[in-house]
Write a structure and sequence with these properties.
The chain is an alpha+beta fold and 162 residues long. It has helices at 6-9, 11-23, 83-88, and strands at 47-52, 59-62, 69-71, 97-99, 108-112, 118-122, 125-126, 148-150. It has a domain at 47-150. Helices cover 14% and strands 19% of the residues. The protein has a 3-stranded mixed beta sheet, with no helix packed on it. The protein has a 3-stranded antiparallel beta sheet with strand order 5-6-7, with no helix packed on it. The protein has a two-stranded antiparallel sheet with strand order 3-8. The model is unreliable at 1-41 (pLDDT under 50).
């Protein structure tokens, strides 16, 4: 039996394996990395926001159904969530944001961040996720510290509880 030389016979197999692994890497996501709470997230190429029913009434969610929140310490169109804050409340970062079902395109905007990225905004509120929300539809960040609230279709914070 003849043993192939590593440098020649395995080269095509290794090239295919690298190509397959690269293809499985996936693209950027609108939602935070679900595997590691508080993990830094890569910006999505584009994001969408829509309105979904929840125990709090109609609220703003991303394209995957993850709840979006507003922070009462933010100023209209400006984020005041520092690095420690963003570890628990990751920003929805995307260069472009589209209005999905029930969302008003005229309320969508972008908030420039100090690092040059842009955070999605709806009405006056920069948009955030909460790492405690495990699946689409969770609203466990609602009213936390009396500073974090889901956002309604009208662009206003929903301050009631479920």
């Amino acid at each position: 039996m003849r043993v192939p030389q590593t440098g020649t016979a395995l080269a095509p197999v290794l090239a295919l394996a690298v190509l397959a692994l690269t293809a499985c890497g996936g693209g950027a996501s609108e939602a935070p990395d679900d595997r590691k709470p508080g993990a830094a997230r890569q910006p999505a190429a584009a994001a969408s926001v829509r309105v979904a029913d929840s125990p709090l009434g109609p609220i703003l969610v991303d394209g995957a159904g993850r709840t979006l929140y507003g922070f009462t310490k933010d100023q209209p169109g400006a984020s005041n969530c520092d690095a420690d804050c963003v570890a628990v409340w990751p920003a929805l970062i995307a260069p472009e944001v589209a209005a999905g079902s029930g969302a008003e395109a005229k309320l969508l905007g972008k908030t420039p961040l100090t690092d040059g990225a842009t955070q999605a905004r709806y009405g006056d509120w920069p948009l955030y996720y909460y790492v405690g929300d495990a699946v689409a539809g969770d609203v466990t960040g609602q009213a936390l510290d009396d500073e974090w609230f889901v956002i309604g279709a009208d662009g206003k914070l929903v301050k009631r509880t479920a």
